[in-house]
């Protein structure tokens, strides 16, 4: 079991590589071993998460996500399926048989991501104008 600490918060992981103890030949794996990067770096996942966090009471199909974000529906579906596997979204079937996704507000990662989103909003002018 390894520990991972960021800003004073420590979590234990069975499979996380301790990046501080990596030698130079291991650095090519630096981001590949990061849960942060693996969750957020996937194509289209940031816009998908943005929609889910900003509208947690609503359900969305991949086509809805495409309309709202411009992320191709197949890419959105792949991201949503991965989020469903780890329990961050719940799935339901629509009247036409499509799968719709909604934020699972009870998942441990949703609240911190929502708080981070709110914190970023306070920097909107600086982020969007630079």
Task: Write up this protein.
It is a single chain. By secondary structure, this protein is α+β, with helices and mostly antiparallel strands. The protein folds into two domains: 1-39, no CATH class; 42-130, Winged helix-like DNA-binding domain superfamily/Winged helix DNA-binding domain (Arc Repressor Mutant, subunit A, Orthogonal Bundle), CATH 1.10.10. Helices cover 42% and strands 15% of the residues. The chain has six helices and four strands. It has helices at 35-40, 45-54, 62-69, 73-85, 110-121, 124-128, and strands spanning 2-6, 9-13, 89-93, 99-103. It has a two-stranded antiparallel sheet. Strands 3-4 form a two-stranded antiparallel sheet. The longest helix is centred in the middle third of the chain and has 13 residues, at 73-85. The chain starts with a strand and ends with a helix. 14% of the residues are buried.
């Amino acid at each position: 079991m390894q520990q991972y600490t960021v800003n004073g918060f420590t979590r234990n992981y069975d499979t996380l590589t301790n990046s501080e103890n990596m030698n130079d030949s291991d650095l090519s794996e630096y981001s590949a071993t990061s849960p942060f990067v693996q969750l957020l770096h996937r194509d289209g996942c940031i816009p998908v998460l943005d929609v889910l966090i900003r509208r947690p009471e609503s359900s969305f199909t991949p086509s809805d996500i495409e309309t709202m974000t411009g992320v191709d529906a197949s890419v959105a579906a792949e991201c949503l399926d991965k989020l469903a596997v780890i329990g961050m979204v719940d799935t339901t079937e629509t009247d036409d048989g499509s799968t719709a996704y909604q934020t699972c507000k009870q998942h441990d990662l949703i609240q911190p991501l929502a708080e981070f989103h709110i914190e970023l909003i306070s920097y909107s002018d600086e982020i969007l104008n630079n």
